Amino acid sequence: MNRFPLWKYVLIGITLVIAFLYTLPNFFGEVPAVQVSPVRTTEKADTALLGRVESALKSAGLGYQGVELAGNSIKVRVASTDLQIKAKDTLQGALGDGYTVALNLVSASPEWLSSIHALPMYLGLDLRGGVHFLLEVDMKAALEKAAIRYQNDFRTELRGDKIRYGAITRQGDAVTVHFATRDQRDAALNKLANVFGDLAFTPEDQADGFTLAARLKPQAQTKVQEFALQQNITTLRNRVNELGVAEPVIQQQGASRVVVQLPGVQDTAKAKDILGRTATLEIRMVDEQADPTAIQQGQAPFGDDIVPLRGGGKIAVKKDVVLTGDSITDAAPGFESTSGQAAVHVNLDGKGARIFKDVTRENVGKRMAILLIEKNVAEAITAPVIREEIGGGRVQITGMETAQEASDVALLLRAGALAAPMQIVEERTVGPSMGAENIRKGFHSNLWGFLAVTLFMVIYYRVFGLFSSIALAINGFLLIALLSMLQATLTLPGLAGIALTLGMAIDANVLINERIREELRNGATPQAAIHAGYDRAWGTILDSNLTTLIAGVALFWLGSGPVRGFAVVLCLGILTSMFSAVTVSRAMVNLTYGRKPRLAKVSI
Amino acid sequence: MLEFFPFKRTIPFMSWGKVTTMISLVTFLFAVWALWEKGLNLGVDFTGGTVMEVHTSQPADLPAIRAALEKTGLPEVSVQTFGTSRDVLIRLPNKGEANASETSNRVMAALTPGNPAIELKRVDFVGPQVGKELYDNGALALLVVAFGIMAYLAIRFEWRFALAGMLANLHDIVIILGMFAFFQWEFTLTVLAGVLAILGYSVNESVVVFDRIRENIRKMRGATVPHIIDDAITRTMSRTIITHGSTQIMVLSMLFFGGEALHNFALALTIGILFGIYSSVLVASPLLLMFGVKREHFIKPVEKKQEAVV
Fold it and tell me: What's the ipTM?
């Protein structure tokens, strides 16, 4: 009656062995390591890089404990945190700016465990310390930026076709062109509608003339916004790489938000400063005809903008943008060879280099302004006179006051521009000491709770209580193994979830044990009572667990961040507890009592 | 055999129906009043704003910290110690979106001169928009869980059970919320997760009793419905108390050893578990009786074929 076929025992045995193996890595702790990853996502970390890392460490005489290629990065284990910093400096020096070298911690579990993909759970920021940012992209600004681009393009197109037009004005994301006659307007409509398929045009007859309003079509708007988000994510990725964070997370969330997680970051002010910069770079021609007194008074000549010049004074620059930061492929700080001034050396992409060559050829002797636009405020970093045609896409920008400033500007340029401004809408920072404290406390609350429940169960139900407690412990192992296999991120609410599931899991065993007692009380033989106890309790266990599962699924569905972690643990915990409470404890009972055909007494 | 609850005779729970209904009605109304009058002390997760926790090497000089912060021009700063005299909690409400994210930098810059060894332990900044979204999602989650469980009970048992179970559980939830409102404990996202978990957990208890009622209805043929319910509650009583007890042990362990971060979460669970016992036994079942549950609802009558009228 209370016997399992052999295959069931074997199955349970295999499950337990697997669970044990995959739980194991979580108990080994971590060792300091240095992580090397390429700055550009298109490049891969490969065995060639591995060789370079090893030879760099060897030539510096630094001992290391192991080197492994994991994902798109290389991790070097070292013995101490002192060596870790030395190794970091050595590698950064040897590999150069193309690689991010960051301090990290890796699991100290032996290699054979890693080789079967038994890896420890990933700790959330609340347990290891770090910063979590939620950034929101200003989608309205993205559309306005597109409108500004069209404003410029209209000018070029209409001028190219010699169609006369009046002012081109922009209001929000709509651009309006003014005309003196209807014919001009119709000619312009014909031309522009042909060239710009993404725009919807509405001609209108005003009292004082004719206008043509243009606005992006809805699908094109979505496309612009999607593009802005993607561009911003790429830019953020570049900026984060500059910070040298070991395992950053940069992910899209919803239609307009980006999550950035920087584990282990302590200098949050610097992180925020670099992430939050909304700077873009533009190169525009200086309007040499503008009246200097009008400029000082802030009256912009038609078609110009007035911007302050770094170091004092104002200049008028043309509205037409020659080049934007998008064309910049690389930027490095340095010094100008003749004067020794701080400078930034910029490389342009093919298209940018061509435009730059044309513009410099046509404008020798004129001034060109390099504008840095931060938070919608433009400032001319420098406005040098073009001495000769500059080809080959290598440009040197001077005008920086200090070497530090030059390196900041270079970082900004290299990291690329944001397609639309972003702002931080959520920030959560957990200091490393707080993280360690959270782990310790979370672990302790689990441990003491478990011990107290075990003690009670053994006293109250004796041998059956012992079985229940063992089943509960196995449930804990199964849950941690499952979370480790899924490489779930363990957070503090997750730890609370483990404690809560362990507390609730015993429910199933109590149900079974009480049922067995009741059957015995009603005069059933021990064997029959055990059988009936497990049998009858099953339906109830299923019912009561399913209701909790419903709550868990809803939490996962609607929750965010840490609450989701809690929900995952809750749901998985319910599944593992049903298995351990019913099948595993039954196996123990069957092994102990099942073979005796005439059982006189059970310890319950 | 060690037994804490050796009930030999059936306890007449249902005859106490009027009293228990009164008690739950009073506590329920009290909770509703607290919610109405005082409202939940919503945490930064829902309202938006900034909460910072800093650690100083010496016992913190709160007036000095307040004075230093006042100079930064930040509005309505509240400063208090937190746990120990060297841990300080600083709260700033959301005032205007501009630069809200730089608040923590400004606070640290203002505090560092007076306390060189100051350490930033935690910053939670939530924008007003995000907070509102979380609040809406939380309310939606509560509804989804309530309806999900009700639908499950309705399918598994019968609509009367679903309604009774759900009302009993909402009673628990309202009481938890009422307690949080009355004592003005901070209600955060984690507490909400705890409340939802309780919603799932508390139904367990009702389900166990319902299950037994259904079984008794089939088994105890001569008995009246109230007696059937009394018997079901009595037979499952010791199990109810033991399972709640063991879950409570875990939760209390969280309350005592889990630290500040888990404190309110554990608190919500503690209240939920305590009231869960009471409501599953003394709220759900009288309601069931009130809804007029009958034997016929479970034992399907033999369907009579409709005879054609000639």
Answer: 0.87
